[in-house]
Write a structure and sequence with these properties.
Structural class: alpha/beta
Radius of gyration: 22 Å
Strand order of the largest sheet: 2-3-4-1-5
Shape: elongated
Largest sheet: 5 strands, parallel
Number of strands: 7
Mean pLDDT: 89
Helix content: 40-55%
Low-confidence stretches: none
Length: 234
């Protein structure tokens, strides 16, 4: 769906659900881009699920902006909002706004609820669960081609082994690899070992050096950066 979102018919309701932060962010971005092809801050409204009020959300959905034909109303971390207003949302999905597009970003979306069944009829629910290894290898290989490079199978497996199933980190590492191997136009296993594995080992040693030298603040920062990049805490 991410590869063809802009060419598909627009839906009045989108539900973005699952545990992968990168996929959720990319899915939200594609929905906004499809509804509002030109950057349009006026046509997009964002609410936090825990604080969103139903009346405000509905008003935004039915209010057409001055300089846009459509409006996107996004509710982030919307699980508590859905729980509190399930009946009202069912009624809205049954008769949605002609110009407003509701986007619910949730962690859980059971398909057997009445609301989920109604959304399936008129809207779209996008599953953003972390893919399995075979799908990740396929995704990495396809993404490399968009970067005008090719990713060898062994290189893809090593990259996944080093980084883990973290799509955001994998995307960042693949970007770095594509730039570093632009002349060859190909990413090989040794490139991954040199640019990804070696860089992490070097950072681990920097953490240990800073700790043994009594530089606690620096060691903590380096460790935080390392974990944020996808390194296992152990």
């Amino acid at each position: 769906w991410l590869r063809s979102a802009s060419s598909q018919a627009l839906k009045p309701v989108y539900v973005i659900y699952g545990d992968d932060v990168y996929l959720r962010r990319e899915s939200v971005r594609e929905v906004v881009r499809a509804v509002l092809p030109e950057p349009d801050e006026i046509g997009a409204s964002r609410f936090e699920g825990a604080a969103a009020k139903l009346a405000d959300v509905v008003d935004e959905l039915y209010t057409l902006p001055f300089f846009s034909r459509r409006r996107v109303v996004l509710i982030d971390e919307a699980d508590p909002f859905v729980t509190a207003h399930r009946k009202e949302l069912e009624a809205y999905v049954g008769s949605p706004s002609a110009s407003g597009h509701l986007v619910l970003v949730v962690k859980s979306w059971p398909s057997n609820t009445n609301l989920a069944k109604l959304v399936a009829k008129v809207g779209l629910a996008v599953d953003c669960a972390t893919p399995g290894e075979p799908d990740l290898i396929t995704w990495l290989t396809a993404r490399a081609t968009t970067l005008e490079s090719s990713l060898e199978a062994d290189a893809a497996r090593l990259l996944l082994e080093l980084v883990g199933p973290e799509l955001g980190v994998l995307a960042a590492e693949l970007d770095k690899l594509a730039i570093s191997t632009a002349d060859a136009g190909k990413i090989r296993r040794q490139d991954v070992a040199r640019l990804v594995e070696a860089g992490r080992i070097e950072t681990v040693w920097k953490v240990l050096d800073a700790a043994t030298e009594g530089k606690g603040a620096l060691a903590t920062k380096l460790l935080d950066d390392l974990i944020a990049s996808g390194e296992h805490p152990v």
